[in-house]
Amino acid sequence: MWARRLLMTMALLCCAAVQVSAQTLGVGDPAPGIHLGEFVKGTPVTSFEKGKTYVVEFWATWCGPCKVSIPHLTELQHKYKDITFIGVSVWEQSQEGVKPFVQGMGDKMDYRVAMDQVPANGKGNEGAMAKAWMEAAGQNGIPTAFVVNGEGKIVWIGHPMTLDKPLDDIATGKWDVAKAVAESKRQQAEQGKLQELQMKLAAAQRSGDPKQVVAVLDQAIADDPARETTLGPAKFQFLAGKGGDPAKATEYGKRLVEVVLKDSPEQLNGLAWMIVDPAAPSKPTPVMVKLALQAAMRADTIVQGKDAAIADTLAKAYFDSGNAAKAVEAQDRAVRLVKGTPQENDKELMDRLAQYRKAAAAGKKP
Predict the structure, then answer these.
(1) Measured on CA atoms in the order 296, 320, 232, 194, is the torsion positive or negative?
(2) Residues of the chain with CATH 3.40.30.10
């Protein structure tokens, strides 16, 4: 439903089989050429003009997060009228749906949009832009945006929802390219270490013993304490899961909430949802529900009650703890907050509100 549902997958990505693609394109490198198919919106761009800044963003019709970021890119295009935004549709199973999708978005997608140049009878990932940009830069997920400066060099790569500050610095001449290049190289080096960690974790997972996985995670965190914000939720899940150690899971969960993740509402929310997710294989214990409620309340406080996903999680934590009235209050807020967004008609959201209302009316606990 929301990005919080992906936290577990993201945190455990290091535990999956490793698929490594050689990265040959990065921040500071000359931008590849523009090899696009049909422009379905806006004036076509065939090359980068010297002295002009461009945002080249990769998306797909089937990509949920892309649908969320598209209106944000439109806001940025309206704010920075001298910067050319190009949305490039990639990795499509069929490009026939691109034009209707863009037409349906209307003013919410108010910048240039084009399709990748895919060979006849070729697959979506064989497009010229997908290979020269995304694959070359080692980018395996969308949406992803590249910023090209007036010298034709890539000066930023990342998720469009985090583009605001970098783009403002680039537009006002405050962007430190040398610093950005150094940071990019640091991230590449870290990625190499992460790939090594992936292999160790994959081997530990194959053993079927969660304690071996936790041992690998503990060593990785000891080697670099900064990794705990990323690997901590995975460690917690293995401790709390089948064959783990419930007592240690509770103790470590409190550390995550009170120390490691205390200033990250997204991660606190993800941790709470990991516990109270109705799709989880087993019902959480009262101690775990209490931990989830603590994490969700902390996250809700940080965002000042203005995040629908966090309010939804908080409602579920209240409900599982036996407070249906508070659950209704939080869930009703979540429903109000999604008005006018892609989540407005989310069935799960409305079903949970009905469930909580029914329980509150009956004065029953879940």
Answers:
(1) negative
(2) 22-175
Q: Where in the chain is the domain with CATH 1.25.40.10?
A: 206-362
- Amino acid making up residue 68: V
269, 3 in Cβ contact below 8 A?
A: no
Q: Which three-class secondary structure state does DSSP give residue 86?
A: strand
For the segment 42-57, the average pLDDT, to the nearest whole number, is 97
The two structure tokens encoding residue 54: 């461009």
What CATH fold (topology level) applies to the domain 22-175? Answer: Glutaredoxin (3.40.30)
Q: Quick one: 233 exposed, middle or buried, by C-beta within 10 A (0-12, 13-18, 19+)?
A: buried
Nearest alpha-carbon partner for 113 in 154, 55, 64? 55
Is the pLDDT at 314 greater than 60? The verdict is yes
Q: Sign of the C-alpha dihedral, residues 234, 298, 342, 71? A: negative
Provide the token pair at 163.
């583009």
Instruction: Report phi then psi at 164, rounded to 5.
Output: -50, -60
13 token code pair: 């990505």
Measure the CA–CA gap between 77 and 164, rounded to whole angstroms.
11
- Of 330, 332, 325, nearest to 359 (Cα)? 325
Q: Token pair for residue 356?
A: 């909580």
- In angstroms, the CA 247 to CA 240 distance is 8
- pLDDT tens digit sequence for 106-122: 999 999 999 999 998 88
DSSP reduced 3-state for 49: coil
Q: Which residue has the tokens 């990019």?
A: 184
- Please check whether residue 204 is in contact with residue 216, taking contact to mean a CB–CB distance below 8 angstroms: yes
DSSP 16-45: SPP--------TTSBPPP--EEEEEESS--
The residue with tokens 């203005």 is: 306
Provide the whole-model pTM.
Answer: 0.59
Residue 159 and residue 144 in contact, taking contact as beta carbons nearer than 8 Å: yes
| CATH number, domain 206-362, options 3.40.50.2300, 3.30.450.20, 1.25.40.10, 1.10.10.10 | 1.25.40.10
